[in-house]
Amino acid sequence: MLRRILLLLAACLALAGCGRGVDAEQARICRQAIPALNADGANFRLSEPRPGPGRNEVLIQYEVGTPRGTRRRTITCRFAGTGFAAGKARLVGITTERGALSDASVYFLQRFYLETPEAAASDPERRAGAARVLQLPSPLAYGLQQALAALPMAAIYGLLAASYALIFGLVRRIMLGFGEFAVLGGMAATLTIALSVAGGVVTPLPGLLSGLVVAVMAGALHGLVAGRLAVVPLLRLKGQQIVIVTVGLSIALAEYLRLAQGESGRWVPPVWNATLGIAGTRDFLVTVTPMSLLVTATGALAAGLLIILLARTHFGRAWRAYADDPVAAALFGIDGRVLFSLTFALATGLAALAGFLMVAQYGGVGFSGGLALGLKALVAAVVGGIGSVAGALAGGLVIAAVEAAWSAALPIELRDIAVYCLLVLFLVLRPGGLFGERHLVPREI
Questions:
Q1: 298-323 b/e with 16+ CB inside 10 Å = b?
Q2: Strands 69-79 and 91-96
Q3: Fewer beta carbons below 10 Å: N end or C end of the chain?
Q4: Angle of helix 138-171 relative to helix 178-198, nearest 10 degrees?
Q5: pLDDT tens across 361-376, in order?
Q6: For 243, phi and psi rounded to 5 degrees?
Q7: Helices in 19-137 by DSSP H: which ranges?
Q8: From the CB of residue 108, how many other CB atoms can be counted at a distance below 10 Å?
Q9: CA 164 from chain center: how many Å?
Q10: Nearest-5° Cα angle at 200, 152 to 365
Q11: pLDDT per residue as tens digits for the range 35-68
């Protein structure tokens, strides 16, 4: 199983690496400039974009069909940067087979055409891409697009829900605040990528890898300190003290993140976002991006490694023994306080990884988004079966699917209400969740 997951991740990395030569956003801008440089009503057949002869350039060769015949033309677009560099979407020059356009022409082209909806609607690749792929009925193609769009969010919800399940499965306590740890991981990743760009590294892979490492380490270290200082001393208490403490911890962490981020948000430019056609209809193309595949594969890999960790390692055996019978586990030499600290660090590390995936997929995460994100992940953990790590991962998939289906067919502003209504249904009809007990059982919450 692990080998298959690693092969999938390697394939996604290779797929993403194939798009490093030409940035997808730059190729889109250059492609959308083609209709403005040709007569109205012309038909186009484009070749694949490739790097131009100069730095930060994109070259596209194409054929233009008019009533007078077919001509071969080229366009070379030059941009202010590439990768994570600022201004990578700013067009600074266009050269055709007739020569270079003046600076004023390039400015007016970008300012008054390329930044309008008409340019996106006139993209020559839209209809050509839909005609090259497998044709599906419109409802099926639309449903497939929504399913593909839900995969990255399923990975994020699944990892966050697993954080709740790790703690509840061990000590039978619901601890809040994992949404804030996800925001912490996302902000650490954003800062790391920004520092790598300031250091001269603008290619995506080094920045993303360093952001991943720093995000997980920041989440785990913060979780280790918070668990030792605030939560471990209260483990022997039977009341609601731990819930109250973790609520206070989440509020303090949110304020800490607000002060660290400042008034304005920090965002990462999109990378590896070339649209890959999967299927389509006559006027609709089902697409997915290499980054979406990579985020999904990373979440699946982390989930697989977590399952293997709990099933086949010394830590996993200790975790399962303590979760089953703490007294017997203590008699066999398992230190519950140390085990909880390690589990809390693992859970916060997973939450930080989820935050990194949000930055990679969506460009950033705000300091105020932790509460809503954490509550949805808690719903996913309950739906899957609170205390079951595998159930939490499945619950994340369910919540992402419900959000995608609701957004596709119903008012999006009511989507969160639908998610919490799903929680109510499960608590009434199946309190144990998908992987838990069917009926209510005595629990210490």
A1: bbbbbbbebbeebeeeeeeebbebbb
A2: antiparallel
A3: N
A4: 110
A5: 998 888 888 889 999 9
A6: -60, -45
A7: 24-32, 103-109, 117-121, 125-132
A8: 12
A9: 19
A10: 30
A11: 999 988 788 888 889 999 988 899 999 998 877 7
Give the distance, in angstroms, between the CA of residue 370 and the centroid of all CA atoms in the same chain: 15
* Structural tokens at position 389: 């790590």
Using the CB atoms, write b or e for 129-145: b if 16+ within 10 Å: bbeebeebeeeebbbbb
State both tokens at 263: 């008034």
In what helix (H) or strand (E) does residue 225 lie, and over which residues does it extend? helix 204-226
* Tokens standing for residue 371: 């509460």
Could you count the other beta carbons within 10 Å of the beta carbon of residue 49? 23
Residue 438 has pLDDT above 80, yes or no: no
* Strand 99-100 relative to strand 91-96, pairing: antiparallel
Centre a 10 Å sphere on the Cβ of residue 385 and count the other Cβ atoms it contains. Answer: 24
Q: At residue 270, what is the residue type?
A: P
Q: What is the token pair recorded at 284?
A: 């609709």
Q: List 241's β-bridge partners, or say none.
A: none
C-alpha closest to that of 79 among 87, 91, 68: 91
